[in-house]
Amino acid sequence: MTSKLPYIMIAFAAAMWGLIGFFVKGLTAAGFSAMEIVAIRVLTAAIILILVGIVYYRNHLKIRLQDLYLFVGTGILSIVFFNWSYFTAINLLSIPIAVALLYTSPAFVAILSFLFLKESINRKKLLAIVLTVIGCTLAAGITGKGGATFSVSSILIGLGAGFGYALYSIFGKIALRRYHPFTVTMYTFIVASAALVPTTGIAGKASSVFTGDIWLYAIGLGIFPTVLAYFAYSWGLERTESSTAAVVATLEPVIATMLGMIVYGDRLGSLQLLGSAMIIISVIAVNITLPKREQKKHFPV
């Protein structure tokens, strides 16, 4: 029987990502911009990972220079590009539409995995992806009745967030063929930090990060929805298909919505409840394999 632990680890990563709003709210209240918060996130994560690596993963600290492009892929093309696209889309569009466009990522992963990783797209996986995309759209509250119109460029930027989000699964899958999950996670955030810290000017605000309760938000942001989440996701991704991992990871908006209801008193409409249910159904559908008859049971299903 195929182990479900990789899917559990990916779901755990999704749960950790669902907590990000708590830390972002705290840092936003302290006066940091969206991209400064991203810079704090990746820099804090990189420092923590380097320290953990020196103590526990000394045998996994080296990479080949010719493989650096993989971490440019996970760190800059994915983490940095995804965040830039996502926050730009929030400003140009609206948060619900930006979130919905972000979670088109499973469709991008399935297509990219088919093209570059030679992974198949069967009917069950295709149905799960379709349900996920529709579910995320409904969960985000898009009803089509608002009458708002947006430019093509702003929609493409929003889709860029989904594409950038998907690239982590693709580059990460290739990197995991050669490196330990810890190595992949650490160098992803080292490269992302090298790109973000100089361009956001967060270094000039370094003294203000560690005042009052800000350092708790900064370190918490670096540990829970970042280090733990990406390590768990990389561990699970190493042991399953990229497209399947991406679908399981879309539990994140459901978990974030539940936390919002419990902690912040957010209310869900019927369409959002339906969308959340569709996401859960898609995750169940992609992971449950119905048993076949006794004959041919020696064949994988």
From TrEMBL:
Domain of life assignment: Bacteria
Keyword Hydrolase among UniProt keywords: no
Localization per Swiss-Prot or TrEMBL: Endomembrane system
Chain ranges passing through the membrane: 7-32, 38-56, 68-87, 93-117, 126-144, 150-170, 182-202, 214-233, 245-265, 271-290
Domain EamA: 7-139, 154-287
Keyword entries, A-Z: Membrane, Transmembrane, Transmembrane helix
Cellular component terms per the entry's GO annotation: membrane
Alphabetical list of InterPro entries matching this protein: EamA_dom, EmrE-like
Pfam families per UniProt: EamA
Family, per entry: Belongs to the EamA transporter family.
Protein name listed in UniProt: EamA family transporter
The species this protein was found in: Mesobacillus subterraneus
